[in-house]
Specification:
The protein is α/β, with parallel strands linked by helices. It has a single domain, classed as P-loop containing nucleotide triphosphate hydrolases (Rossmann fold). Helix content is about 30%, strand content about 25%. The chain is built from 9 helices and 12 strands. The strands form 3 sheets. The chain has a 6-stranded mixed sheet with strand order 6-7-8-3-9-10, sandwiched between helices. Strand 4 and strand 5 form a beta hairpin. The structure holds adenosine-5'-triphosphate (ATP) and magnesium ion. The site of magnesium ion (MG) has 4 residues, from helix 1.
């Protein structure tokens, strides 16, 4: 799969009389994984919503492979952008298989049945996320982490060229956090992922964008962005930054 190129150009998003996203410009190159980090309320989810066509920017543009998502249909975007949201509702009477199969709908018209290709894509996604044993269970009966994996599988079945994920490791145990981010890295799609865990972000992201008060205060490699001075200024924490013994990426130790 080839990754889409995402270009966020001077995006502002306003709500309740203030700028939740304040002049953000950011590029995700084809195949690149970019992590969006920043404190609670810094605008990560608000920015991601401008990309997957929920928050219409007051100014600026969001381009996927050069096309303005806000000039394209929701369906056009759904065919290219796979989305995993923070806290999805779970109170609907569908099985795991049904929920994952919803990911194919972007590529089908209302009257299309599921063909062999759809079934193969669906089974592959269930397998990748370790969900084959849970496939017939009601979605509502799953644990938080199991649900999260289902929502990732649903995004994968759309075979997106860009993944937009809002804290996809939410609810996952350590093993599943690593597995998920490895899967994203292997998928070949481009990805913009909001993450709270700075060390996971450093291990898996090619570049990071640190938001504070809706503005990008640093964009660069994890090494460039995760400095003790900046972490003190933005999060108000005292840290030392070591080298990860296996990956060589920065390892933030909170003092
Ligand atoms: N519709 C809205 N009206 C008013 N304020 C909003 C609205 N949506 C979000 N906000 C506020 O905008 C700020 C940014 O919210 P956002 O959800 O983007 O933050 P975040 O970085 O994703 O935070 P978290 O790490 O907690 O998920 C917060 O202060 C939030 O309360
Ligand atoms: Mg958020």
């Amino acid at each position: 799969m080839t990754g889409a190129r995402l270009r966020i150009e001077g995006v502002h998003y306003l709500a309740a009389g203030r700028a939740l996203v304040d002049d953000v410009s950011l590029t995700v190159e084809s195949g690149e994984i970019v992590g969006l980090i920043g404190p609670n309320g810094s605008g990560k989810s608000s920015l991601l919503r401008t990309v997957y066509r929920v928050n219409r920017p007051a100014a600026g543009r969001v381009l996927v492979d050069g096309e303005d998502v806000w000039r394209r249909s929701a369906r056009w975007v759904a065919q290219r952008v796979g989305v995993v949201l923070q806290d999805m509702p779970a109170d609907f009477p569908l099985t795991v298989r049904d929920v994952v199969a919803m990911g194919r709908s972007a590529h089908k018209s209302l009257l299309d049945g599921d063909d062999d290709h759809d079934a193969a894509v669906l089974d592959a996604a269930l397998g990748l996320l370790g969900l084959l044993d849970l496939a017939e269970r009601p979605f509502a009966s799953l644990s938080g982490g199991e649900r999260q994996r289902v929502l990732v599988a649903r995004a994968f079945t759309a075979q997106p060229s860009l993944l937009v994920m809002d804290e996809p490791t939410n609810h996952l145990d350590v093993r599943h956090q690593l597995d998920l981010l490895h899967l994203v890295a292997e998928l070949g799609a481009s990805a913009l992922i909001a993450l709270h865990d700075l060390n996971l972000a450093a291990m898996f992201c090619d570049r990071l964008c640190l938001l504070d008060g809706g503005r990008p205060v640093a964009v660069g490699t994890p090494r460039e962005v995760l400095t003790p001075d900046r972490l003190a200024a933005v999060y108000g924490i005292d840290t030392v930054v070591h080298d990860h013994p296996r990956t060589g990426t920065p390892l933030v130790v909170v003092l």
